[in-house]
Design goal:
146 residues, mainly alpha, 82% helix
Length: 146
């Protein structure tokens, strides 16, 4: 279990560090271009939303890493109550919760970048169906644990 623990930990840190550099580069490019317009602010906002998306994925992978560590190596790992993992089902629940948040950020990014040319309602409907299915999974998962 050491390999997935180390792999997920390094992967989460790599995502967070890399996206931090991308965010700084986006900020510097925005300042350097000097563009002040509705289109420029939308592009900048999309860059920030994309960074939030990657940060959420990195955090989810970190939670999986610490969860695997506490399940298989040391169950006394001091973590906040919301991060406590007692089973693989807890890890799945954490992952699904973050996937829901990432899908929401994805939809927000598409709405912000939307130019009105395509029908965004179909995309939103598809995402809503996926989120509904994942929410149902979480509800079933939680009811089994109670």
């Amino acid at each position: 279990m050491i390999i997935p623990i180390i792999g997920t930990f390094l992967g989460s840190m790599a995502l967070i560090v890399y996206e931090s550099f991308v965010l700084v580069a986006t900020f510097i490019e925005t300042i350097r271009s000097g563009a002040v317009s509705a289109k420029a602010v939308k592009i900048f906002a999309v860059g920030i939303v994309e960074a939030v998306d990657v940060f959420l994925i990195g955090i989810a992978v970190y939670i999986i890493s610490t969860g695997l560590y506490s399940l298989f190596i040391d169950d006394n790992l001091p973590v906040p109550k919301w991060m406590a993992v007692r089973s693989l089902e807890d890890l799945k629940g954490n992952l699904v919760s973050v996937v829901i948040a990432v899908l929401s950020v994805l939809f927000l990014r598409e709405v912000v970048a939307w130019d009105g040319s395509s029908n965004i309602a179909w995309f939103g409907t598809a995402l809503a169906l996926v989120v509904a299915a994942l929410t149902y999974f979480l509800m079933k998962n939680n009811s089994r644990r109670d």
